[in-house]
Amino acid sequence: PDVGARFLLYGPPGTGKTAWGRQLAERLELPLMVERASDLVDPFVGMTERKIARAFHQAEDDNAILLIDEADSFLDDRNQARQSWQISHVNQFLASMEEFDGFLVCTTNFDARMDIASMRRFDFRVEFDYLTVEQAALLFSEMCDLGGITAPDEETLKQWLAGMTKIAPGDFHVLARRLRIRRDKPTAEELLEQLKAEAAYKEPEGRPIGFRADLH
User: Fold this and answer.
1) Does pTM surpass 0.70?
2) Do residues 49 and 88 lie in contact, with contact meaning Cβ atoms separated by under 8 Å?
3) 8 Å CB contact between 191 and 144
4) In this predicted model, which residue has the larger pLDDT, 171 or 212?
5) CA distance 111 to 9
6) Do 32 and 65 touch, CB atoms closer than 8 A?
7) What's residue 27's pLDDT?
């Protein structure tokens, strides 16, 4: 493509933001360059700015889609910054964005604290949320088919999932990995309990404590 675009994907962890970036690269038949913000931050003065600039230049040279995970690290509200280096990081990131002609995908779990000027620089701002009951039921059925497990009918499955408001595609990804390594075949009811356990990790009051072994 001759024209690039800047995407800001925000929402809870596990809702498919990074996966969307990978799918975009596949659809456009372009290489994908993934950078975590935590890998770009450097304790030495000026090095973070260099790493940011280098990442954008490398993506442009390789004609790659640049995906910055945890991008809120570089897009915080500068009015709330307490250190000059925080402002410098944001300024460098915004400058690199302006010079970049390719496709940029930034993901973040936190959009409320982002710099307003930063938000305006994105062509598209897309919220990724938890699954609806219908979406969760569809993924549950597909996972059962994948594992050769007898799934309940659609209405029963929706009743099972009703009230589970914080189910993400990442939860099913975890369960699918378990299915691949388990020797026995769980029942649909056992999968439901494991899904509930994954969802409970998003609730502070329901977060299990200590080591968890639920591969039974």
Assistant:
1) yes
2) yes
3) yes
4) 171
5) 9
6) yes
7) 96
